[in-house]
Amino acid sequence: MALTGLEIYKLLPKTNCKKCGFPTCLAFAMALAAKKVSLDKCPDVSEETKQILAEAAEPPIRTVLIGEKYKIGGEIVLFRHEKTFYNPCLLGVLIKDTFDETTIEERINEFYTLEFDRVGQKHKTELLAIKLEQQNNAEKIKYILSKIKEDTLVGIFSNNISLLEEVLKIKKFHLIGICEDIKDLEKYVSLAKHYSVPLVVGSEDLDKTISIIENIVKQHNFRELIINVAVKNYSQVTEYLTQIRRLALKKNLRSLGYPTIIIIESDDEIENLSFATLGVLKYASIVIVNTTRQDIHLSLVTMRLNIYTDPQKPTTVEPKLYQIGGTPSEKSPLLVTTNFSLTYYSVEPEIINSKIPSWLLIVDTDGLSVLTAWAAEKFTAEKVVEAINKENILEKVKNKRLIIPGYVAVMSGKLNELLPDWEIIVGPREASGIPKFLKTLCQ
After folding, report:
1. SS3 call for 166
2. pLDDT number for residue 157
3. Most C-beta atoms within 10 A of its C-beta, which of 26, 32, 97, 222?
4. CATH code of domain 321-441
């Protein structure tokens, strides 16, 4: 939890030496609390103070890096409407060394197909989670690893520390975990430190989980941790995930201020979907399922997108001139609309369906839809003309015909004033009417 200026002041030397550029230590503390200056501006601050302030500046849920680009945790609110959620949970597929080789190969191959297009953005299931349950199964492990592509995000879980040590020498992993118990905890921590990867730990008992984490942090000075939440039943998972989040945020309990993971091992596909849905909704940072069914993963990806898309920042496309349906000519139709991604990806396929190559001018409306942008005065005749000039439209479109959305037909009068040499055409109100409209226009 962030400290106030007065709380920071109590930790400073209080010498008023002015070396930091401020007249007093109190003034420096106030600027530090407002994040207008960094602590390194004070040359006399103690190492203990640096550590206290660094910990205080961290979010209640620690941010943990998985691989080189995926961040989990880092959250500061219990409910999205309070502010926003920042780091989307990772979705993963479970692989066990008890699976036969055919199942392993099929599952890994299917994992690589779990990529989906949602309103023009690519989303996928990111993680392969390998769970080792057999004690002496080196050949099966080598077989699993041989089927995994080099750049795949992979986690490995095992209660056999010796086996885990050997496997880590073969391939780079992005997180390691203890399956069920906490034997050899010190060795697991040493491995995580040595390979610079997060460690998954936890117990079915919340108090025991706190004790484990406090031991790791205090005795081993290691904090790249992920809390494993055992999947027993729906009420238990809900209660456990909610308690961890609430205690970390509302009670500032640092021992639980870490991302969480649930691993669903059920062979029932409906249970996989329902537990995973619960995990995405109730704060799990990593959700591992025991299935590669496309429809299940598409549902989870879509839900994650809905939960972790900031409602205050609409999904947008780049405002510019697009060529749709092939290579349009200087006599091809020119349509205009807003940069709200759902609007663009409603209009684009309908232009393609018309089989008439066209120009599509996207105006920057801060991601608002047509009517909303018009009502907010972000989609105006002036904005359209500005976009036409910016994109040098007349160098590409010679017929000087502009098609505007039917919902903003009222804009046509002002456009006629601003573009007296142009023909302003009111298009259909719905995107579904575009194919028929363009075919009739170009007859």
Report:
1. helix
2. 94
3. 32
4. 3.40.50.11600
Are 295 and 116 a contacting pair, CB within 8 Å?
A: no
Give 327's Cβ-side CA count (13 Å radius): 0
Four-residue CA torsion sign, 119, 407, 358, 377 = negative
Among the four given CATH numbers 1.10.15.40, 3.90.550.10, 2.60.40.2230, 1.10.600.10, the one describing domain 5-46: 1.10.15.40
Q: Where are the alpha helices (DSSP H) in 12-100?
A: 25-33, 47-57
413 burial level (CB within 10 Å; 0-12, 13-18, 19+): exposed
Give the Cα separation of 143 and 148 in Å (integer).
Answer: 9
CATH fold of 64-308, please? TIM Barrel (3.20.20)
User: In the structure encoding, which two tokens stand for residue 349, read together?
Assistant: 């396929």
Q: 316: which DSSP letter?
A: B
Q: What is the b/e burial string over 88-125, where b = at least 16 CB atoms within 10 angstroms of the residue's CB?
A: bbbbbbbbbbebeeeebeebbebbeebebebbeeebeb
pLDDT at residue 35, as a whole number: 66
Place of tokens 């055919």: 102
Distance, CA of 122 to CA of 77 (rounded, Å): 27
Q: Compute the average pLDDT of residues 179-198.
A: 88
pLDDT tens column, 374-426: 999 999 999 999 999 999 999 999 899 999 999 999 999 999 999 999 999 99
Q: Which of 237, 260, 235 is nearest to 248 (CA)?
A: 260
Alpha-carbon distance of 37 to 344, in angstroms, equals 42
Q: Boundaries of CATH 3.20.20.20 in the chain?
A: 64-308
* Contact (Cβ atoms closer than 8 angstroms) between residue 19 and residue 12: no
Place of tokens 């809390």: 227
Checking if the pLDDT of 275 tops 80, the result is yes
145: left (phi over 0), alpha (psi -120 to 50) or beta: alpha
Rounded CA-CA distance 169/175 in Å is 14
The pair of structure tokens assigned to 116 is: 């989906």
Cβ atoms within 10 Å of 48's Cβ, excluding its own: 9
Structure token digits, residue 421: 């040499």
E strands of 133-191, at which residues? 153-158, 175-177
What amino acid is encoded at 374 in this protein? W
Q: Residue range 342-359: average pLDDT?
A: 94
Q: Which two tokens stand for residue 429?
A: 């109100």
The C-alpha torsion from 144 through 232 and 63 to 153, rounded to 10°, is 10
